[in-house]
Amino acid sequence: MSRTRFLLAAALALATPAGLAQTWTATSAPGFGNLNNDELGSLEYGGFLYSAGLNTATGMEVWRYDGVGPWTPSSTGGFGDANNTELQGAAIFGGNLFVAAGNSATGLEVWSHDGATWTQVNVDGFGSAFNADGVLLVVNGTLYAITFNFVTGFGVQRYNGGSSWTPIATGGLGNANNTECDLEFWNGNLYASTYNFVTGCEVWRYVSGTTWTRVDPGSGFDASGVDNESASLYVHGNVLYAGTENYATGTEVWEYQGGTSWVQRNADGFGDARNADIEPVTAYGGALYLGTIADPSVGGEVWRFDGGSTFVQVSPAGFGAAANLAVATLEEWGGDLYATTFNAATGAEVWRYETGTTWTRVDPGAPGPGNGGFGDSGAVVGQLALYRNELYCTLPQVVYRLEPALTYCTGKTNSAGCVPFLTSVGAPSATSTASFDITANDVVPGESGFIIYSFKKANLAFHGGKLCVKAPFVRTTAKTPKNPGGGCSGWILRRNFNKTIQGGADPSLTPGRVVTAQWRQRDPADPAGFGDGLSDGIRFVILP
Description:
Layout: H1 2-11, E1 13-15, E2 24-26, E3 38-45, E4 48-54, E5 62-65, E6 72-75, H2 77-80, E7 84-93, E8 96-103, E9 109-113, E10 118-120, E11 133-139, E12 142-148, E13 155-161, E14 164-169, H3 171-174, E15 180-186, E16 189-195, E17 203-207, E18 211-214, E19 230-236, E20 239-245, E21 253-258, E22 261-264, E23 275-284, E24 287-294, E25 302-305, E26 311-313, E27 326-333, E28 336-342, E29 350-354, E30 358-361, E31 383-387, E32 390-394, E33 399-402, E34 405-408, E35 421-425, E36 437-441, E37 449-454, E38 457-462, E39 465-469, E40 474-475, E41 492-496, H4 497-502, E42 514-522, E43 532-541
Parallel strand pairs: 1-30
Antiparallel strand pairs: 2-33, 3-4, 4-5, 5-6, 7-8, 8-9, 9-10, 11-12, 12-13, 13-14, 15-16, 16-17, 17-18, 19-20, 20-21, 21-22, 23-24, 24-25, 25-26, 27-28, 28-29, 29-30, 31-32, 32-33, 34-43, 35-36, 36-41, 37-40, 37-42, 38-39, 42-43
């Protein structure tokens, strides 16, 4: 087993950060100026990015950001109750933002926000102080509140609007050891899976919106019994799956066959018992990608699921560092898959899955795996969120933004003996009056050049170098180089691409569009004999 895993991991590619230029900018002060604010999470609502977390001193706070100015408070002091200490969950439903505030004194509170005011929409704990924690889920167009209860069992409340809720499950569905649950909608019915560390997880179906029927095979799915303590539900290819938490033999993935019949589709722990749980699950490139929580000796992994029994490991364990204990989030942005880690030793890391083949570390930490993300070893976990087509990473106390332009591919050695490379200043925007300059550095003196751009990356052999944009592409007007000094040749080609975006000649250059671009230049003495020079490529997302 160990030899098989070693050969597999050795075949998985990790790239050094040298070929990728990505910059992260802190958008907030730590804790928004209050270090009691911790364990933040973020999501977009109503044109703002909202963030909230844990504050055991004065109660949870909710802050929001417009992408330009400073973060401003939306609610402080636990909505007027310091016992509302923690953001338990959030959801957008019916045009409003809903948050669940954990409260160990009087029970979970649910608050609704219309962009201006906050209104509590439930009775504390839905009538029981034991319902101290929980989450919010929108499933099949309906908002549900799930209460976690370690005394009498979980409950599920269906939202009716206003402050009206209907309890559709109570008391752990008859078993007080069912303390938590997950929900999924499949084939016309609502399904619930449970956390139960006494007799093993269960799965229930809500038949015709009136009656719960147990549909798992019992004993936590298999002979491991209580080892499968919980299950999370997900749908892929119109098939219902349950992924279990199992710290004895490893996580298991089960496919529902109808009735109480399930078929296990993976080997326990994907062949390694240290892969104990599946946490983030996301669709990317037509497949499902699963991130694991692992034993501290190995680190979390990313697996691709193509359906049936086809699971392919696509990342080395821990991305090469066992301290990356878990894959925390998976998010697609700009056509690539990004992953964050949980790392209690040196801090969270961010990795990018380049062209579906190679993982490259892109956080500001030292090169290589396990060397500390974002310069804060106490920032143990990163969570990704999208806002205005930009990628954000929320750490326990600081929210970072990934700057929208990044470089890739490689330039071609020119007759000046240089390899032209791109830099950028500013942000690509459909409305901003500020410039977004794309500069090719170390170009050939005295020879004109132009940008070619399209909407997909390439890395194709071309004229003794690399063509970094995929045809068909558009060519801008030619520019002559300038010589500000420095570098190999000291000459540059520069263009304010925001003028191209806003000029109207290309109506496809709209907000949210991913653009790939490359400088091409005349080079009569080209060493490769083709008479042209090529920079590396740049990819960016057009902002509003």
